[in-house]
Amino acid sequence: MESLRKLEEVQTTMMLLESHNIISNPSDDHNSNRFLANFILFLVQPCGEIDLDKKCTLVSDCIPKISSGFLEKVSVCLSQTGFQKQDLQLNCENKSDPIPDQSQDDFGEMAMVGLDAMQRANSTLEDFCRSYFMFHGMEVNKPQEVFKYLPLLSFTESYIYQLDTVNEKILDAPLNVANFSERAHEVEDLRSVKFVNIFKSDPFKPLADLLDSDGLLTERIREEFKCGEEYWALERMLCCALTNKKEICAEDVIKAIHLKSFDYRVLNLLLYQLRGEQVNELHMDFLSISEFLVEVADDMFDYEDDVLENNFNVLRMFVRIYGASAPTMLAKYITEAEEKYNILMKTLDSQLSSNYERRCEEATKEGGNVSKHPLGTWSIPPLIVDEESYRMNLLDPK
């Protein structure tokens, strides 16, 4: 694991050097670029009280005085004392890599997640287990059933959250959405630079490869991965359009809100695979409608925060399109979805529908809804028509 960690540091540093135009394409002169990456990693290592400015000054002053002849003398001198050059050899040889050469596809081809992503994914995993396990005849209160599938479910959701975090950073960059492919240099974190580069091509490939190697990847799961990419692309496009005061259309907004819960569908399809079950299409259809209603309800609750942070929010988008009529237009979609929800609910097994209604009641109470109605009532917050003024007033209350 230590060698893998070191290799990741080298590869991500190479991409950071490339994004800042310090080196050219890593594949052009791989060994030279690996040497520079290792040298940069050496420079950032702590060394007593010497800070980075002092290190840069020392390098600038001394490097011109160091020749290949001097390095040869040092090598000869050290070899005479029994010192082996490989003891301090920078990792520039591909043969020392613990995995095949990654010069073409970089180290991002290996699916990895960070602790922050795992922590952020926790609430979604809890909700998934409490809301979806029952559709597989599983008891969420039985630890052995939860932990049997938790590692892969947790890893998958964490990987998705990790990509979502990068998407948010890209969205925060003060650039037009058309310049998405150039935004890597806006994200300074090494790990984020790596994933921004993955985002340019196939962000789910490392995760898909991992699932495929375990015989768990299906065409349905691939399709949901594509839904995730499409959602993030729509989110960037719509939020950028609002920021730049451009027109948007309701079709894109509704499509985005339907795509948004793709991660729940990925987890659900993955659970079918893990348990060796056939996908229950009735359950999938019912849960899809439920997911839409939950997403809309969440957007009502998060409306002010989403305006402040420039996040996708269905009400926010409808305000831009319909103005003061936004609540009325949104209510039409909610009513239509609720009608489908009630129809499909009646087709479920009576015990399952009862359990799911009970879960909805729990989620509603935990969310702070004090309505007497067991599933809560729709409450549309005051509309924010002038988002720019709203942000300025909150950031500068004077």
Could you characterize what this model shows?
The chain has 398 residues and is an all-alpha fold. The radius of gyration is 26 Å and the shape is globular. Helices cover 65% and strands 0% of the residues. Helix 9 (219-243) packs antiparallel against helix 11 (262-274).
Question: What's a concise summary of this model?
Answer:
With 398 residues, this protein is mainly α. It has helices at residues 2-19, 30-44, 52-62, 68-80, 115-132, 143-172, 190-199, 205-213, 219-243, 250-259, 262-274, 281-301, 303-309, 314-322, 326-347, 350-366, 387-395. It is 65% helix and 0% strand.
Q: What is the strand and helix layout of this fold?
A:
Layout: H1 2-19, H2 30-44, H3 52-62, H4 68-80, H5 115-132, H6 143-172, H7 190-199, H8 205-213, H9 219-243, H10 250-259, H11 262-274, H12 281-301, H13 303-309, H14 314-322, H15 326-347, H16 350-366, H17 387-395
Unreliable sequence segments: 85-108, 175-188, 370-375
Strand content: under 5%
Rg, alpha carbons: 26 Å
Q: Give the termini separation.
A: 53 Å
What's the rounded overall pLDDT mean?
A: 82
Tally the helices: 17
